[in-house]
Automatic annotation (TrEMBL), chains A, B:
Top-level lineage group: Bacteria
Keyword DNA-binding: yes
Molecular function per GO: DNA binding
Originating species: Lapidilactobacillus achengensis
UniProt xrefs under PANTHER family: HTH-TYPE TRANSCRIPTIONAL REGULATOR GALS (PTHR30146:SF109), LACI-RELATED TRANSCRIPTIONAL REPRESSOR (PTHR30146)
InterPro entries associated with the record: HTH_LacI, LacI/GalR-like_sensor, Lambda_DNA-bd_dom_sf, Peripla_BP_I
Protein name: LacI family DNA-binding transcriptional regulator
Domain HTH lacI-type stretches: 3-57
Keywords on record: DNA-binding, Transcription, Transcription regulation
Alphabetized SMART domains for the sequence: HTH_LACI
DNA sequence: GCTCTGTACGTAAACGTTTACTTGTTTTGA
DNA sequence: TCAAAACAAGTAAACGTTTACGTACAGAGC
């Protein structure tokens, strides 16, 4: 069995209180006692039991991450950012996923509460009204990352999707494009879907361009959504966009894949603009032009905000983080 | 403050023992007592405190993951696999990274031991002799994933890198290639480096081909390593390989990027074979031919093995998982 | 009526820490 | 020299559970 401070106390001939004080460098002991205690601790391979500490201190120094699924690379960057900051602050991170459509959300949250996480970061989870009540009942601070709650009743960190879509569409227009498809967006998604549609629409109108609803292709941000949309576009000659604004980098790659098969050249025959600036965007050839979300930094910021909120006991303020248009090789001027 | 079983006990007029029995469905109480207790628990929003449970049960039902960094997408798939299985077994997962070159390894491991994780999965961490001693001192089961310890002194789950490199190289030879570069490999890396060099070399020899050491380009599995190597290849006319076997998908994309810049067509002018089958491989155009490692399944398997090892108290057996050659669009026959 | 068995609880110790309080000893300062 | 202050260390309670053990009571069987 693992050594405890009792063992150390017994062997070094002091009380557990003194051992604790030595180990935590609280002072109130002679140097030679400290030396002895430390030596015994090392000898026994002593490691503090955080369960016991958590119990008495009523604090676990742990935060939880919930996300739909861990599988995609941009989540990896987010997790990385969160973990880095949490580590710096002496927090550990526990990880669960909520399943597609949040099927496992409630269960995951319970899990975390039982683990007594001090706060939770919910990444890309779309909350319904009913979830909000359950979350309130949990009595644990929850910060949303790349997501937003109905009525903004939870703090969030995200980019302004409307503004990003507006800027992206405008950029395409500035490159001389007049017929621009919007691909892969989910109109039922009130956080990353509708605002992007609205931004796209507004940019067209501001430029005096006609909005063609047939150029908006619904989807779920996946590669396949891009493939499907592009296949439809090729099969519908009357559409003929000169540029497509894809709602994720993966979707953009789906569009490009179909073009490649069909012998269309990017960007000469079609301009493609992605969204996310995930790691792949800079690795494909031609490199993908895209609107960048600073995932790593967003993760850091979220962890920062959550932890300082925890420590100061202040409510967490939402924050809009800046996006950036990254021009690479998939958009050309007409 | 959060409600405890004492609160429930007091309000429902029974002892904490009975509350515990009801909550854990252990029997030994009348139905009406159970109803009452459950109602009170719900009313108070009671959640079990796992720190207390861990303390008394001497078990945390938590496993830890350590990896060099979380940033890349193939780690995401691995984490996903681990988390899924762990969840099914009622375990939670805590996550830390070891930093580049394991700078943070010892610290991370201590962290986990203090958290009393029951076992650890080390993903892609290269251990030195000295680490092994520290790990043994930790007295926590450690299973390596996509890694291997000196002298195989720790159980591992990984593909046979030698065999995979042999098969990949042979496949290229079967496509008619005679001059094949090996790109991005780290000769100092005894787990993913040297075995692949050996497999590559052996395949050439088996085919009666001459080994040209200049065709082996050292690197660190990154995109940039691929770029550097390919740049050198273009600048060195006497080499002129017709195929390159890149040691990761990202490296392969680096190679392809330089070719794209130089106007070389893939696969007509150069065949490129990747390694990993990370999510990107199927999304780029042309889609990347690669040797697939089943990351998600490896994660599942590792979690499985670790947890059953924990529960049965049996030593964990190492396991080689099968790789698969995936033919897509970047390799052509000469 | 009596013992026996089973059920339905309650009591209290234990898990490994931290920490308020107490006690005893040494140092300080006038 | 002596009281006061400072220091070093110990005692024991507390954190929230689980669980071995004890007990009271009801019904069964004779």
């Amino acid at each position: 069995m693992r050594a405890t401070i009792k063992d150390i106390a017994k062997i070094s001939g002091v009380s557990t209180a003194t051992v604790s004080r030595v180990l935590n460098e609280l002072g109130g002991y002679r140097p030679e006692v400290a030396t002895k205690v430390l030596a015994v601790a090392k000898e026994l391979g002593y490691r503090r039991n955080d369960s016991a500490v958590s119990l008495v201190k009523q604090a676990t120094r742990t935060i939880g991450i919930v996300m739909p699924t861990v599988a995609t690379s941009f989540y990896a960057q987010i997790i990385n950012g969160i973990e880095d900051r949490a580590y710096q602050a002496g927090y550990s991170v526990i990880l669960t996923h909520a399943g597609v459509n949040n099927v496992r959300l409630q269960e995951s949250l319970n899990f975390m509460v039982e683990r007594r996480v001090e706060g939770i970061i919910g990444v890309s989870i779309n909350l319904a009204q009913i979830d909000l009540q359950a979350i309130a009942a949990l009595a644990v601070p929850l910060l949303l990352l790349s997501a937003q709650a109905p009525g903004n009743r939870l703090p969030y960190v995200k980019v302004d999707d409307y503004a990003a879509a507006y800027a992206a569409t405008t950029d395409l227009i500035d490159h001389g494009h007049r017929t621009i498809a919007l691909v892969g967006v989910d109109p039922a998604d009130s956080v990353a879907g509708r605002p992007r549609i609205a931004g796209y629409t507004a940019a067209l109108q501001a430029a005096g361009l006609r909005l063609d609803r047939n150029l908006i292709f619904p989807g779920d941000y996946t590669f396949e959504a891009g493939q499907r949309a592009m296949t439809t576009i090729l099969a519908t000659p009357e559409l003929r966009p000169t540029a497509v604004f894809a709602v994720s980098d993966e979707t953009a790659l789906g569009v490009i894949a179909v073009c490649y098969q069909a012998g269309l050249r990017i960007p000469q025959d079609l301009s493609v603009l992605g969204y996310d600036n995930s790691a792949i965007a800079s690795m494909v050839s031609p490199a993908l032009s895209t609107v960048a979300q600073p995932f790593y930094e967003m993760g850091q910021l979220a962890a920062d905000k959550l932890i300082t909120g925890l420590q100061t006991n202040q409510p967490i303020q939402s924050q809009i983080v800046p996006f950036k248009l990254i021009h690479r090789g998939t958009v050309s001027s007409l």
